[in-house]
Amino acid sequence: MKVIEGSYAVAEAVRVCKPHVISAYPITPQTHIVETLSQMVADGAIKAEYVRVESEFSAISVCIGASAAGTRTYTATTSQGLALMHEALFNAAGMRLPIVMTAVNRSLSAPLSIWNDQQDTISQRDTGWIQLHAENAQEASDTIIQAYKIAEYRSILLPVMVCMDGYILTHVYEPVELWEQKKVDAFLPEFDPVHVLDPKKPKTFGAFADPSLYTEFRYMVQEAMEVAKKKIVDIANEFRDEFGRYYGGLIDEYRAKDAETLILAMGSVIGTIKDAIDEMRADGIPVGLLKIRAYRPFPVDTIRDAVAGAKAIIVLDKNISMGYEGALFTDVKSALYGKSGVTALGFILGLGGRDITKQTIKDMVAKALEAMKSGKVQECEFVDLRKEVL
Amino acid sequence: MKLSVGAVAEPGSTRANKTGTWRTFRPVFNADLCVGCGICSQFCPEGIIHEKNDKYATDYDYCKGCGICAAECPKGAIKMVLEVK
Amino acid sequence: MKLLAPGHRGCAGCGAAIAVHSILSATGKDVIVVSPTGCLEVISTPYPESAWEVPWIHSLFENTAAVASGVEVARRALGRKDETKVICIGGDGGTVDIGIGSLSGMLERGHDVTYICYDNEAYMNTGIQRSGSTPYDAATTTSPAGKISFGNDRPKKNTPAIAAAHGIPYVATSSIAYPADIGKKVKKAIAIKGPKYLQIHTPCPTGWGFDSNRTIEVGRLAVETALFPIYEMENGKITSVKKIKRKPVEEYLKVQRRFAHLFKKEGGDAEIKKIQETADANAKQLGLDM
Question: Predicted ipTM?
């Protein structure tokens, strides 16, 4: 166990996965990850080609070309950089290229903000990438190793975004258990692609499909997502067996079994919520947590089962679909439609780096208890809104 | 046909698509005038004009009848004639 | 056997298909081709079919040179010691406009990639819209001639000069009217380590408005009028030009519908004079006249 920066832990995890090609463009707060990887390349500590591109669009495009040519690839970005990649993200998924990316979570301009929320990855929800959210630096780095195994699984072959909250996880120093190369090699076999760009077997990549076939190609991605639902759980279990650490499969639960009120959230806020739950439990409030680890594929059945015994749910969104509500709240309600009469409250919070404290969590739980009593539910409420400046 | 993962396609498979049906005019090659220079072959957009015994001929399965071969033949050995179907 | 199979959906007389035949005849089979979205991509790869006999990848419109960079470094990372060449074949829209960022990045980073632009001087695939490579006064669907317009009001972008400004070892222009010239230059380019840029003038019967049998003739006229000069630049210096017995620009303009307004509209003469001045300047600058 070493006390290291989250970004360094991620770079270390990437190193032991032995990617052949790394391509990235610097953007705050992803920089420490790519700087560390650059140093590893400069020191010969990792045998990868590092391509210093002129934009995030080219970073992901280099990964697309390199992946099609049969290599394991890695990139990292955040916020505006991820938005710039948007078009190519669809392309990578549609071409079924198992690229792995660390998506550092940061808000989107305007106004410009370099601080954390999750609007950036939420806005890439429909690209066909698997999205896994990490709670701490150890999980963000362990999940990289799992991500390659998920992405490269023959009946999945989809790219994976490992999401980690900017600054909160990238710049924090935490005790992190590093990996023995031998154990990683045993856990993660070499990338064995189905098709490769090679003059000996001259295949065509990136053909177009007319209306008689396009739907079926999209369906195949959806099918792969269904396979991923099972495989993400299996691989999390395998990882636990090999490395002794476990963060949940599609979701994780904390004091949830007998909880009347369940909090659903993603990312680094999970730690704060757990602490708040412990304190509330001590005060006799039966509250628990569902940590959403896989945002895509979305764990509909798992959430339904986990929520079955609860009377109220509180969904935290560090994003908002303007003109509606938080994206996770919409998804959770949709999953429960017709299956649960639970009282549901959605909260928008933590935008642009606004702190989420234990008190914030407790206030939301109080609101849920009140709503259950009064039967009055306000959906989509901004938390800690500074009304005095509006 | 079963779809391939990621829409990967097989090489040269457009051969299944016989574009000869597009043709309005048909190039007729006069072997007596052909000197075997191969200019017609170099300029054919379909890449289907091939040499056989120093003379050139096209593949009517694919020839779209553009007429470049006839226009560029330095010996006037190719004539475009109206396709009769 | 040609490396672009028949059955592709190119229009009768398609210049882009001719360009590809000339390019691939020079490279041979040991090549990986990267193309952007565009006419060439659409005519050659309607799933489940592909006209390509060589490995080929299309990702998006603006990332061709970046995808090629990825392919090139991947081959290196895998320790492939073979002679396989990575080349790009893309239209002018995907090259000089939307793809110029990734092209510039690839050239600047020094990848061993040969980028070949087949320049048909507009967005043909979407219906003949103006690109940065469209010549002055050409009518396109987004730069139409009209009561107060002579068509495209800007000169053609000098992309070979932009490529050369990256300090790359080899830049050349050519035309589909001269397959031997293309062959020689492609062979030379792929033999040089590092980034190379070729721009091949590629007349389009559908977009420019001439009969399908005149593709080569029109290409030849562009060169012979000095409106598309053919030259080579090695390490930033012009090292060869194709000398011509120069023809007046009218001979090139009058055979194309995209310039027809110049011969009908009042003031057209003055416009043709301006175009002639461009040709004169090209001839003078490069020493094209025999």
Answer: 0.97
